[in-house]
Write a structure and sequence with these properties.
Helices cover 44% and strands 5% of the residues. The protein is mostly helical and 131 residues long. The chain has a domain of 62 residues. The chain has a two-stranded antiparallel sheet with strand order 1-2. The longest helix has 19 residues.
Length: 131
């Protein structure tokens, strides 16, 4: 595995599985045959965030508000437009601009003049060790 060097086999002790020994033998070897590497499609991730925002707007806005109704209808339209392809992700993100505004993401990224702040976390931490 990672850091194991040029070995063909990687030794796995049964104690690596929380002390559970299925057959009592510690000398087991496994060979890694395939590896799947995945990457995140950032446009699809952003569409997911856009959709989550549009779907939650009707819940937080006053009942039957025009913006809430528009967001609900647009979320439904995005669901019907999405086909699982890169082109449909781009098309759905463009649909989301109908509520969020044209180029809203670029405008948010270009904001300047904001002071940098310090984030402080205050509170208590409970670590449950009884499991």
């Amino acid at each position: 595995m990672f850091g194991a060097g040029p070995q063909d086999d990687v030794r796995v002790r049964s104690s690596d599985y929380n002390g559970y020994k299925a057959d009592g033998q510690d000398d087991k070897y496994y060979t890694l045959e395939t590896v799947a590497v995945g990457t995140v499609n950032l446009e699809a991730r952003r569409l997911s965030w856009d959709f989550e925002l549009l779907a939650s707007l009707p819940e937080v806005l006053p009942q039957q508000s025009p913006l809430g109704n528009k967001a609900r209808a647009l979320a439904n339209k995005i669901m019907n437009t999405f086909e699982g392809t890169v082109d449909s992700v781009r098309d759905c993100r463009q649909l989301a601009e109908d509520v969020m505004g044209k180029g809203w993401q670029e405008d948010a990224n270009k904001q300047t003049g904001q002071e940098e702040g310090t984030l402080w976390a205050l509170g208590y931490c409970h670590i449950d060790t009884a499991w």
